[in-house]
Amino acid sequence: MTTPIDVRRRLLAGDEIAILDVRPERDYADGHPLFAANLPLTAIETEAPWRLPRRAAPIVVFDGGEGVAAGAARALRGLGYRDVAVLAGGLSAWRAAGLEVFTDVNSASKAFGELVETRRHTPSLAAPDVAALIGRGADLVVLDARRFDEYATMSIPGGVSTPGAELVLRARTQAPDPDTLIVVNCAGRTRSLIGAQSLINAGLPNPVAALRNGTMGWRLAGLELEHGQDRRAGEGSPDGVAWARDRARAVAYRAGVKRLDLADLAVLAADESRTLYRFDVRLPDEAASGTLPGFLNAQGGQLVQETDHYAPVRGARIVLADPAGPRADMTASWLAQMGWEVFVVDAPPAAFSVVGPISPAFAAVDPADLYRRPYVGADNPRAAMQAYLDWEAGLVDQLARDATHGFFVV
């Protein structure tokens, strides 16, 4: 057993710790500590091996009084995890200790996005204003920072799929004229804010703005979305790629990202005292054509958006790979600002030799156990969308009250 205060102290000290809510996702979304990751009891056998790659990493499991935490601890120990504790009193004890409880999913990443907007005053435009610009044929492009499958489900009219980490690499192809306005959108706020600020941080000469409240804001304004689109941003010229590489590396340097070669990586991988995550942050089809040994694919924008899912061991090391460079550097710059010790590996193209399925394994989930995200799909109630946006707006204040995050903004 361990206590909420002990867990909080480990977070403040920067020690490794995985805080796992082992309830179904729908219950996790009702409330959890900031850095708690959802790993339901039914998913442990499938997902723990890659989400918790070091068997000696300290793990704390909890529930909300349902009695599943003890079984989850036994399951983890059965897989060889050696430092597993149950949070005494579960979520109720966390609340009773006066500690902050966050709702929804990917809360830490979303709170960070709100902090970035607050600190950097990331420009944004309301949906009616963007619609008016599109309607009168203004010189602008809309870049959709979500995964392609999300974009294909519903998108802003004329929008082009450019998933988050691809933005700095591909924006100049879509807007070669520096006077062209670039509007970055997602479903809600986080990926559009991080995406727009990525372009600003990289020094793109174009005016840049986030679409305020994303596709939800578009629908709340009574505007129509497109469906089934297949527009994808091109990579661009060698000069454009070289520009993106230089600018992204400079941003990563400002954020304190470390660089290593394959020999350095081997040393980190051999260190049994620390958890090491290795991610190829390119789009799935590119990564599947050949990556570095031991690397899993996690699109850069999704890794920033869903860090708790891909890397639940807070305090672990993260190494990112991208043969071109900009996607790893931009992703690393954000993870570093979120308090991670993050590295980018410089490796020759020939080293990206592992071909095949490298996507993380996910357990099958009963749809009844899932949390219905207000920003996914085209048929969500208006009240749910508005409540979600109101929740996001309050996350910066929650961060201040929680005081364990260690985030900074360059």
Helix/strand structural class? alpha/beta
Overall mean pLDDT: 96
Number of helical stretches of at least 4 residues: 19
Query: What share of residues are in beta strands?
Result: 5-15%
| Poorly predicted spans | none
General form: globular
- The total of beta strands comes to 15
SSE diagram, text form:
Elements: H1 4-13, E1 17-21, H2 25-28, E2 37-38, H3 44-51, E3 59-62, H4 69-78, E4 84-86, H5 90-96, H6 107-120, E5 124-125, H7 127-135, E6 140-144, H8 148-153, E7 160-161, H9 167-174, E8 181-185, H10 190-201, E9 208-211, H11 214-220, H12 238-254, E10 258-260, H13 262-270, E11 276-280, H14 284-288, E12 296-297, H15 300-305, H16 307-310, E13 313-314, E14 317-321, H17 326-337, E15 341-345, H18 382-393, H19 395-402
Parallel strand pairs: 1-2, 1-3, 3-4, 5-9, 6-7, 6-8, 8-9, 10-15, 11-12, 11-14, 14-15
Antiparallel strand pairs: 1-13
Helix pairs in contact: 6-10, 6-19, 9-12, 12-17
Describe the structure.
- With 410 residues, the chain is of the alpha/beta class.
- It has 3 domains: 1-103, Oxidized Rhodanese, domain 1; 112-236, 3-Layer(aba) Sandwich (Oxidized Rhodanese, domain 1); 245-351, Oxidized Rhodanese, domain 1 (3-Layer(aba) Sandwich), CATH 3.40.250.10.
- Helices cover 41% and strands 13% of the residues.
- The chain has helices at residues 4-13, 25-28, 44-51, 69-78, 90-96, 107-120, 127-135, 148-153, 167-174, 190-201, 214-220, 238-254, 262-270, 284-288, 300-305, 307-310, 326-337, 382-393, 395-402; strands spanning 17-21, 37-38, 59-62, 84-86, 124-125, 140-144, 160-161, 181-185, 208-211, 258-260, 276-280, 296-297, 313-314, 317-321, 341-345.
- The strands form 3 sheets. Strands 1, 2, 3, 4 and 13 form a 5-stranded mixed sheet that branches. Strands 5-9-8-6-7 form a 5-stranded parallel sheet.
- Helix 6 (107-120) packs across helix 10 (190-201) and helix 12 (238-254) runs parallel beside helix 17.
